[in-house]
Automatic annotation (TrEMBL):
The UniProt record lists the keyword Metal-binding: yes
Keywords: Isomerase, Manganese, Metal-binding
Protein name listed in UniProt: L-rhamnose isomerase / sugar isomerase
InterPro entries in the cross-refs: L-rhamnose_isomerase (IPR050337), Xyl_isomerase-like_sf (IPR036237)
Recorded GO MF terms: isomerase activity; metal ion binding
Length: 424
């Protein structure tokens, strides 16, 4: 569905005065505000194709209607998000859920919405109906070389699909592991996984990256073969310069210090990208910033510090992707909220007075260091984020506009109340 620009203009006009008033708070700090707005305009966050339908739990799924029935409709949904916020200019596909039958046409369609293709994701955590061997006991780690080969071939096929669309990265998330003590020889599982990843790595085009995503538990509950950042780092280091660790915020054990993990990976040049979401317990896949916004800010604080130290480009040096989806919200509303939360955390982290922070640290002035961070975190940067959107044709309040235009009702009218998204 294409959003007509008139509705955005009308929406913005009616809110313009209120917005300018809020923005005037920044009048004394124009320089800082300007720099932040420019960075926000450049910063794009990829939307996962699997988050456009209502997510379920293993107990049930409550579809909301009007879900995208095919890849074209998924692209249309991301196009709609991007038209509203001008910050969701990419889509991350999951194969085989999103196999593009006509890549040229798909690329063209995405181009019409101003969308690029971010990392492509392989899937060896499910058996497909046309698949000859099962992944019940793992894929790249499997004891049977034929199963490993099938999983390797699948990953290489995913790379080929991505190449046809202009993607530049492959994300490998494995459910491989074991659920009971004694089930798995850890050493062999690691080595087999490394060897299999090595074969996939060898098939990467020269300008591609491979993201190795780790997860502490689930679906295996005793061990995961890529279970933490340490093992992901080890795989990525052994694989070579095109391999990196991908941090999914929900994939840690409770209370893990993710910002410190991020700082270390960045320092080693091995941080590849992110899957943003939030959680209270495990891989809850809740809206980014909905539970622990301060943690999200602290992560961005390390990102900016570490990226600036290495001369990296905030917008393009790392993969920025959302991986959130759940049961009780309209997925498009949820994604608008996630993108906004990420932008807010990024903008707040840009405000941190880094010189003063370093001085406080060097002087062991703990209270002052905390003040500096919290001062930035407690600044209301919503007008800056809204201004960034306004300047590039987005809506001042994307969620409010989405609601006032009854977008979900329109989608239901177009696709039906029982339309179910392909994928999980
Ligand atoms: C998993 C991971 C991973 C994977 C996805 C599948 O977060 O990114 O691709 O779910 O839906 O938990
Ligand atoms: Mn993920
Ligand atoms: Mn996950």
């Amino acid at each position: 569905m294409q959003l007509d620009t008139n509705s955005i203009d009308n929406h913005n006009q009616s809110r313009l005065n209120a917005h300018k008033n809020k923005l005037s708070y920044w009048a004394d700090e124009v320089e800082k505000a300007e720099a932040t707005i420019q960075k926000l305009i450049d910063f794009q966050i990829a939307i996962p194709s699997w988050a456009l339908g209502t997510g379920g739990t293993r107990f049930g799924r409550f579809a909301g209607g009007g879900e995208p029935r095919n890849l074209e409709e998924k692209i249309a949904d991301v196009g709609l998000l991007h038209a509203l916020n001008r910050s969701s200019g990419a889509i991350s596909l999951h194969i085989p859920w999103d196999i593009p039958t006509d890549p040229k046409a798909i690329q063209e369609l995405a181009g019409q919405y101003g969308l690029a293709f971010d990392a492509v994701n392989s899937n060896t955590f499910q058996d497909q109906s046309d698949q000859s061997l099962s992944y019940k006991f793992g894929s790249l780690q499997h004891t049977d070389a034929a199963v490993r080969q099938q999983a390797i071939d699948h990953n290489i096929e995913v790379i080929r699909h991505g190449e046809a669309l202009g993607s530049k990265a492959l994300t490998v998330w494995l459910s491989d592991g074991s659920s009971f003590p004694g089930q798995l020889n850890f050493r062999k599982a690691f080595q087999r996984t490394l060897d299999s990843l090595g074969e996939i790595y060898a098939a990467l085009p020269s300008d591609w990256k491979m993201f190795v995503e780790y997860k502490a538990f689930e679906p295996n509950f005793y061990s995961m073969t890529v279970g933490d950042w340490g093992s992901s780092f080890l795989y990525a280091s052994k694989l070579g310069p095109k391999a990196y660790t991908l941090v999914d915020l929900g994939h840690h054990l409770p209370n893990a210090n993710i910002e410190q993990i991020v700082a270390i990976l960045l320092n080693e040049g091995k941080l590849g990208g992110f899957h943003f979401n939030d959680s209270k317990y495990g891989d809850d896949d809740l809206t980014a910033g909905s539970i622990k916004p301060y943690q999200l800010f602290l992560i961005f604080n390390e990102l900016i510090e570490g990226m600036d130290a290495r001369g990296m480009n905030h917008a393009s040096s790392l993969g920025w992707m959302i991986d959130a989806s759940h049961n009780v919200k309209d997925p498009l509303e949820d994604l608008l909220q996630s993108v906004e939360a990420i932008q807010l955390a990024y903008a707040q982290a840009l405000l941190v007075d880094r010189v003063a922070l370093e001085e406080a640290r060097e002087a062991n002035d703990v209270a002052q260091a905390q003040e500096i961070l919290q001062d930035a975190f407690r600044t209301d940067v919503r007008p800056l984020v809204a201004e960034a959107r306004l300047r590039v044709g987005g809506a001042l309040q994307p969620l409010a506009l989405y609601r006032s235009l009854n977008m979900r009702q329109q989608l239901i009218g177009e696709r039906g109340a029982k339309a179910v998204a392909t994928g999980l």
